[in-house]
Write a structure and sequence with these properties.
The chain has 2 domains: 337 residues, no CATH class; 84 residues, no CATH class. The chain has 19 helices and 2 strands.
Length: 458
Amino acid sequence: MAVNALPIILALFLVVIYSFDIIIYLIALFAPLSLTLSEFMPGFGFDMFLPTEPLLVGLLIVLLLKLINDRGFDKQILMHPVSLAIYINLLWIFLTALTSTMPIVSFKFLLARIWFVAGLYFLTAKLFSEGKNIEKYVWLYVVSLGIVVFYTLNRHLGYGLWNKQVANFVCNPFYKDHTSYGAALAMYIPFLAMFSFGGFVSRKMKIVSMAFLLILLVAFVLSYTRAAWLSMIVAIGVYVIVKLKIRFKPLFITFISLLVLFIVFQDQIFMSLENNSKQSSANLKTHLSSMTNITSDASNLERLNRWDCAYEMFQEKPFFGYGPGTYMFQYARYQLNSNRTIISTNSADGGNAHSEYLGPLAESGVLGMLTFLLIIGVVIYTAVQTYMRLSDKRLKSIVLAAFIGLVTYYVHGFLNNFLDTDKLSVPFWGFTAMIVAIDIYSRNQIKAQKIRTETSPD
């Protein structure tokens, strides 16, 4: 049987080497539909997403071969500020893997992060050179996500569409729970809105885009994902700020003022939160308001429990942390009996640290969190500067849609963490690659125009 499979493996290997773009497209297409190895082989020694992660390993090999055989890669991508921030983050993950309390777990985490970044950021940024192929990348994911949406809504319909209790599992096995499902929907809604109302899109594509947008919006509401709803509200606010070209200084002053007010009135704020006894509910208004219930809502209380464990782990090992990927194995002993809830476990069931920021803080210390925040900060700066610089309507719209999509995840990351999955890594690193590729292209265009101006006869 293995011998019969050799021609197929060889063919795939040749495709990976000579047509890496096809592999990237396949990953984008299969990500929403991928299943974990544990679905087929429960109890196996390790887990991975199929077929996407083996394809990502192949792309990592391609990148290494290009670096060796071509004596380099696109230097503008390799030396871009976003890339430099990623190197710093990966270096720190590597160093904390060396000091990890569970080195094997940490190096597995590091390898997974490397093949996500290699395929979905570096090679994808190369694929997007000069602003090409971006729509195809987005649509491949959206079409597959649409299949998952129909599957989910069909299952949901069997229990009653407004039955919030089943929202957490009707998206299985494709999405682990409704939070990752809602996060993916939130990231792609800005692109579909852009395709639906963008002046550069054909009439036929606008109709198709509007149909998908409507379907994803319905799914977004019925996902009952409060974190995703909140992220969309913030993203809309960021969109307004960018469109109105509000300057950074007044925004910074406003943020500092709100922070000072929170510190001054924190006792009153927490007293108010403790008085909120609304539970998560099928009633959308009640479900949204239950986000601030830190007295009796089990989901909120469990999230606070995980955060408290992460903070206690950070205090124990503030500089190097316990090691990348180790939170789920180490946090149990930091759970206080007073913090445990009816859904508490000792094996990180139902999620990890529930934060893209506190997770690295516990696992890789203060620099683990700060280097991840550095990536986000550089991407935000690059996106805004590129958007302001561009005159091409299509590229300008793509940068804004990618940025707003990322903002939904940056906000969602305060409440959940999914970058160890292909479902969210495809848009997270892919959208980042779009911004970087268009930034490089726009700068090159300006340089070329300047050279033409300087060399043209008077």
